[in-house]
Amino acid sequence: MQVEVLHQPDSSIAKIDLDPQEELIAEAGSMVAMSGFLNVSTTLRQGKGGGVFGGLKRMLAGESLFLSVFRSGTAPGELYLAPKLIGDILPYQLSADRSGGLVVQSTGYLASTPGVDIELGFQGIKSIFSGESIFWLNVTGQGLVLLSSFGGIYEIDVDGEYVVDTGHIVAFEKSLSFSIAKANKSWIGALMGGEGLVCRFRGKGRLFCQTHNPGAFGRTIGSQLPAR
Questions:
Q1: CATH number for 104
Q2: How far apart are CA 195 and CA 16, in angstroms?
Q3: Is residue 228 part of a domain?
């Protein structure tokens, strides 16, 4: 399987070349175009993190209840996937010995190979204040994961401590822990400065952020829309 990300960073689309008998699992509705002979099915996915209960848990995390499965059959095929929001795509190679997996924010998952397991994870009460969903996705196993974002994705190698504004997190390796804190020493300074709460990461690992905040964008655009 070969993945090429085109039109980065604001209008990214993933061109995926499947070898014969290869399979890719993707968020429902993410397919843009594909070879006519590819086999496509809709599933709740069986096994770890699968089934009806697994699908309902994904809904709680902001993901689709269903997943699409693309299979190439006896001949190689071509598939194009794109995120729902205008943004970027990042291929991440997951291995059993790499930082214990990924924690992915809601809507950050686009696709993965069959060896990757996706389960609902709860990061504690701090998730409520993080600017993200209460529930996150725990991504483990081995294989390729395609992450998506609102705006461009940039990678930060954390070694110690790093602070990120809430709402800009796409994913982070499980070797990192995080807590919620004020951006400023005082609440008045934090609120007046427009930063409010931030996520403070600690440890050693990779952190993936997005250049735009979907919540802030929605509030800005929503206030300009005419009332019904």
A1: 3.60.160.10
A2: 39
A3: no
As given in the structure block, the two tokens for residue 58 are 């994904």
Cβ atoms 88, 110 nearer than 8 A: no
**Are the beta carbons of 32 and 81 closer than 8 angstroms?**
yes
User: Can you read off the two tokens belonging to residue 141?
Assistant: 């196993």
Q: What is the pLDDT of residues 34-69, one digit of tens each?
A: 999 999 998 765 444 444 445 455 455 455 557 899
pLDDT tens, position by position, 139-173: 999 999 999 999 999 999 999 999 998 789 999 99
Structural domain tally of the chain?
1
